[in-house]
Predict the 3D structure of the following.
Amino acid sequence: MIAPNKYVPIDASLIGIGATMLKHMAGPTTVTALWEACRTLPPVGTFHRFVLALDLLYALGAVELEGGMITRVARP
């Protein structure tokens, strides 16, 4: 379920959900604000999947949490 495969489409994988969430992060935001922006998106679906995708983004180093704000990490 982390990566897409023959049976799990990209939209249902945590990688795909994380990519969708990154698209909706214009700047530093709180978890609550990001959830409100993404909760109606079909790939995200539930808060459980939202948190799993956010954890994956943090583990991959794609986002950082500083002072209660989530920010995208700019890579060169």
The first helix runs from residue 14 to 23. The chain has one domain: 10-72. Residues 10-72 form one domain. The mean pLDDT is 91.
